[in-house]
Amino acid sequence: MNNRYKVIQWATGITGQASLRAVIRNPNLELVAVKVYSSEKDGKDAGQIVGLDSTEITCTVDPTKILSTDADCVIYSPMPWDVEEICAILMSGKHVITPCPYWFPFVQDSESALLIQKACQEGGVNFHASGINPGGIAEKLPLTLSGLCNRIDRITMTEYGDCRDYGSEGVIRDLMNLGRTPEEADNNPVKDLLTNFWNEPIDMIAEGLKSEIIKYSAEHNYILASEDIETASGMIRKGTIGLNNYRHVGLTKEGTEIIQEQIWFMDDLSQNRLDKKMDIPQDSGWRIRLEGDVNLVVDVKLDAPTQPERTAMGISLTGFHCANSVSVVCEATPPGIKTFLDLPMVTSAQGRHTIFS
């Protein structure tokens, strides 16, 4: 078994920088190339991009050079992503791990699933979509907790996000609809795509419960800003969306509800700059609730003294999870799309030690 894997980092945005940092630090991984998209980063040492020591790996904007590099795995994290580009990487004989979609695409996007599966077969490699939500907390933790239960009536995974310090304007406005008017949000062409995203973990949980979804529904609720709010991604103007509440529900054939909910907001927990208030128990983190003959509530919180630090931690979780997945993805057989249902536990790599008796 190979103990060290050659890794390419593809894209170095906010999330890509977190996975790049994790690859550099991981004793079981060897960074061999970095694909960037800006002339400012082109030619820089990879360590310089993330504030670490020199790696002697020079970043490049040239995808052809990247594809020709000998590597075991590519951590692919551009925004937007490109399924044809993903397939080209797979067909070049490199495993792909990504925080982008296709966590469980077989129901919501069977066409892309077929393309990716075919590319995996041609390259003799695996594809795995990881991350945090979707990509980990949304699926793995609810399923793990389900092993403690018998009858389950409802599984709810709620994400709480104070987004004021999140610096990606594209994500904030185009995906989260924060700072848009309700009319713009309702007509956002990304809306249906997002519904597919949140239905993928619902489908995966149902599959993990040995069931299937027979009915989907969704609610999109907005609360407007009552005054201008300055944020890292620009000004949220009065009268635009200051809190976005997405709620996607899947009903299994046995009658279990599986709910994916997001509450993203541009204020602190007091919500004094919003038109109305919601019950928000924490400013950054997740709550997993299982209801049935056993009722469980598990909160996952980001523990840091300031909100900017908690935001940075949340982004880091996504990138770190991708990097930590490299060994299990590279070792999985046979070639193909690997979801969390196909892989062993993903753990952090902290080095090795020997205990002498």
CATH top level label of the largest domain: Alpha Beta
- Specify the number of helices: 11
Q: What is the helical fraction, as a range of percent? A: 25-40%
Give the tally of structural domains: 2
Q: Largest sheet at a glance?
A: 7 strands, parallel
β-strand number: 15
Overall pLDDT score: 93
Instruction: Please tell me how large the radius of gyration is.
Output: 21 Å
CATH architectural arrangement of the largest domain: 2-Layer Sandwich
Strand order of the largest sheet: 3-2-1-4-5-6-15
Shape: globular
Residue ranges: pLDDT <50 for 5 or more in a row?
none
Give the H and E element order: EHEHEHEHEHEHEHHHEEEEEEEHHE
Query: Percent of residues in beta strands?
Result: 25-35%
How far the N terminus sits from the C terminus, by CA atoms, comes to 27 Å
Based on secondary structure, the structural category is alpha/beta
CATH topology of the largest domain: Dihydrodipicolinate Reductase, domain 2
Give your account of this protein's structure:
By secondary structure, this protein is α/β, with parallel strands linked by helices. It has 2 domains: 5-130 and 325-337, NAD(P)-binding Rossmann-like Domain (Rossmann fold, 3-Layer(aba) Sandwich), CATH 3.40.50.720; 140-305, Dihydrodipicolinate Reductase, domain 2 (2-Layer Sandwich). It is 29% helix and 26% strand. The protein is built from 11 helices and 15 strands. A 7-stranded parallel β-sheet has the order 3-2-1-4-5-6-15, sandwiched between helices. The protein has a 6-stranded mixed β-sheet with strand order 8-11-12-7-13-14. Helix 2 (46-49) links the parallel strand 2 (29-35) and strand 3. The chain is globular and about 55 Å long. The model has no long low-confidence stretch (mean pLDDT 93).
